[in-house]
Please model this.
Amino acid sequence: MIIKQISIFMENTTGRLADVTALLAQAGINLRAISIADTTDFGILRMVADQPDEAVKLLKEAGFTARETDVIGVEVPDHPGELARIMSLFRDEGVGIEYLYASLEHKADKAVIVIKVDDITAGLAMLEKHGFATIPTF
Amino acid sequence: MPIWNKEAECASPEARQKLQLERLQQSVERVYSRVPFYRQKLDQAGVTPDSITCLKDIARLPFTTKYELRETYPYGLLACDKSELVEIHTSSGTTGTPVVGAYTEADIDMWSEVMARTLSMAGCAKGDTVQNGYGYGLFTGGLGVHYGARRIGANILPISSGNTRRQLMVMRDFGTTLLTCTPSYALFLAEAAKDEGIDFRDMPLKAGCFGAEPWSENMRVEIEVKLDISAHDIYGLTELIGPGVAAECECKHGQHFNEDYFYPEIINPETGEVLPDGEKGELVITSLQREGSPLLRYRTRDITFLMRKPCSCGRTSVRIHRLLGRTDDMMIVRGVNIFPSQIENVLMRIEGTQPHYLIVIDRGATHLDEIEIRVEVEDAVFSDVTSVLERLRKRIHDELKSELGISAHIKLVEPRSIARSEGKAQRIIDRRSI
Model:
């Protein structure tokens, strides 16, 4: 299943993260996964929330450049070597990973990893074929 | 301090005006008979060469603009036979078609004279070693200083611009006494010298002639303290000859205009009306003895005023105050002339980077001009992948570099972070303390 990630452009200035999180908190939006890619001048905040459409609308109204991005949330058994197994699948099938990060979600003995790939249809099909569960939502 | 040409530089007002009128008449006659562009302009203005009977008549002559110089590129304003030319210089051409200076043997001779005066004002004499850090090439700075130093009989180190370690090595090993370069580069050298453990108080360097970019009294003090020298401001432009139009003597109270060769006027840039001495306005210059590319009433776009009172150095020539600004929005960054519209043109070609951008010019720790262009990241260019945005930055950087010859720092900023203004948008913040 495809998950809608929220991507936000941010300048590297103090307090910017506080602004974004406060805005979402006010609207009662719950964050399930979060990560920042940073460069010298700017960062891209990526997160998965329970109401992505609503969150993007709010952020845009507040003047942020934000958009929804299709990503995959995959359940990974929580013991050594599992992530390595998934990664080698991607390598062997030639599906490129643009970035990934771990979510705050933790189900019993499973972790949830958020992955952005260059071909999401191929990525999902591949995971399914090898018996990995992709989650529809958090 | 020596005065290179007492007869010319300390002439009585009467003698000078007589000479100026003769030369003005010759110049008008020259362009009228040899340059169709000027003949047409003069005819339109109803001015014939023999109707110029006093210096005040200069106000009847038409202006010449930079735009017209471009329109007539490369040889449209040539006032001599091509076979008489011995040298060509041009502006960098970053602001469009380059501006051309065409020199005959007599023009080079005159250039040597005015540059000998310029360097003498900073104390240069035979026996001095001049380290010429202006670029040699089509740019006028390098060869202009070179000819002046040759005329004086000084020893020249034609090192050209850049290569800082080598500049310092040469300065120390050959005992440079006079430095010529841009003022920001002088400060850059001072910093670099500190890192190399060089103390200027132990060096024979005594003075420097700095120009080709705007600078301030504060910067002068900084240069004088850090390099332990006397720092002199020099003024010139490719259109008229290059450096050598005006320069500061040891009194450093305005720049002495070489008015026996270049006739200055100050006008109201809106109306074109000539303003009295002491009033601020646009500097307009008429060349009085150029053969290759003479100009009538060239509008420099530089803002200053004229100081007619004789200077305590003994020179009687009129002085211009340190430049106070421009009548257009031209910026000079690292000696390169840039208009904001050129940056806008580049951004226009890159989808999504318009219309909100801001140019910030600053002199950082290195003292060299740094240019930052802030571009708001709108939906059209935003990506959740950093490398996509980095590629956008690189593309803007590379296109500006190939277009303007400058390396700008491209900063992607959030939408609406650049202040919106009613009416004319502010596109430039110049933070240089000049």
About this structure: Chain B has a mean pLDDT of 92. Chain B has two domains: 6-327, 332-430. Chain B touches chain A through 17 residues (CB under 8 Å).
